């Protein structure tokens, strides 16, 4: 019989936190032992999320790292960037397994992190032990890790689309263009003017053009997969919807003889042991709705014979495969469990 593992969530009051609470309630081996927050400390969780009335009887407590480490074997950090690196070292030192949902532990080179995120880091030694939390690409490293920097939402969708092309040297590396769209929940629960209904509804716009902070994250892992430095053109858009990311990736194929059927075979082989990646049949292109509420990533692949470009479409739920679901998938691997354990397999649909 597998023992129950005690879990804490720091940043429980946010969207990542409430998703984790939902997933952990359905997980057979995980038990929530500590919910921590900042301005929400002292409140009942149902005061923040009344739909959980009579379903979740937990209180948000202050962030007390000693108390959290005493009560929890595993800690999820679901905080804005630049906070986790002040907490993870103490938690790991006290024997907790830590999964960070922010960008703090996603970068192998902390100079790159500081260039894009700022901050003043004194945690180089512990940061060097962190593993990038994208299980389809780093499964065996995650299995051995005590600290995981879970992949970002746009990078998850985009890297799963790009990985087979990069690993097998199929594309001209300087031709990668990524056009991505996200729902408003990607911005978190705190108030932001651009996420007001009156601003975001019935409208589409790009943001962070040529400077979004997911660019260096995508480039770091792309370079790692291809073995050569990679620069990408990445443009995110805010869509008038709540959940979901669709990332459409374009690149020039090196071999002019490759057709869509060849790419389909390559993608199916690459992801044959990846239970959360669903490679669609030729001519079927994913929609965000298909992934919403589930931990799945849907991929559609096409070659345009006129331009010699491959086009890969990738759809995920930004808050499940792009955030909390991915973190639970990583934890399943760290604990030696099946990576599908306790995670939602089908979308809400419609
Ligand atoms: N939303 C998404 O789709 C995705 C988000 N992420 C990342 O996950 C992390 C959490 O995101 P999300 O849940 O959306 O964010 P939210 O804004 O919804 O929640 C933020 C949480 O952080 C806490 N917090 C804020 N400031 C502080 C502080 N100074 N000290 C301690 N705690 C603080 C808040 O606590 P309180 O309310 O008590 O003040 C709240 O619980 C972020 O790093 C985000 O980039 C990653 C992938 C996808
Ligand atoms: C719509 C919206 O604002 N999306 C967010 C998504 C980023 C996010 O969630 O952050 P990480 O994945 O890096 O943790 C943004 O573009 O900043």
From TrEMBL:
This is N-acetyl-gamma-glutamyl-phosphate reductase. It is found in: Cytoplasm. The active site is at residue 153. Its EC number is 1.2.1.38. InterPro entries: AGPR (IPR050085), AGPR_AS (IPR023013), AGPR_dimerisation_dom (IPR058924), AGPR_type-1 (IPR000706), NAD(P)-bd_dom_sf (IPR036291), Semialdehyde_DH_NAD-bd (IPR000534). NCBIfam families: argC (TIGR01850). It comes from the Bacteria. Keywords: Amino-acid biosynthesis, Arginine biosynthesis, Cytoplasm, NADP, Oxidoreductase. The keyword NADP applies. Catalyzes the NADPH-dependent reduction of N-acetyl-5-glutamyl phosphate to yield N-acetyl-L-glutamate 5-semialdehyde. PANTHER family: N-ACETYL-GAMMA-GLUTAMYL-PHOSPHATE REDUCTASE, CHLOROPLASTIC-RELATED (PTHR32338:SF10), N-ACETYL-GAMMA-GLUTAMYL-PHOSPHATE REDUCTASE, CHLOROPLASTIC-RELATED-RELATED (PTHR32338). One of its GO terms (biological process) is L-arginine biosynthetic process. It catalyses: N-acetyl-L-glutamate 5-semialdehyde + phosphate + NADP(+) = N-acetyl-L-glutamyl 5-phosphate + NADPH + H(+). The keyword Cytoplasm applies. It holds the Pfam family Semialdhyde_dhC_1. GO terms for cellular component: cytoplasm. Pathway: Amino-acid biosynthesis; L-arginine biosynthesis; N(2)-acetyl-L-ornithine from L-glutamate: step 3/4. Signal peptide: none annotated. One of its GO terms (molecular function) is NAD binding. Belongs to the NAGSA dehydrogenase family. Type 1 subfamily. Residues 6-145 form the Semialdehyde dehydrogenase NAD-binding domain.
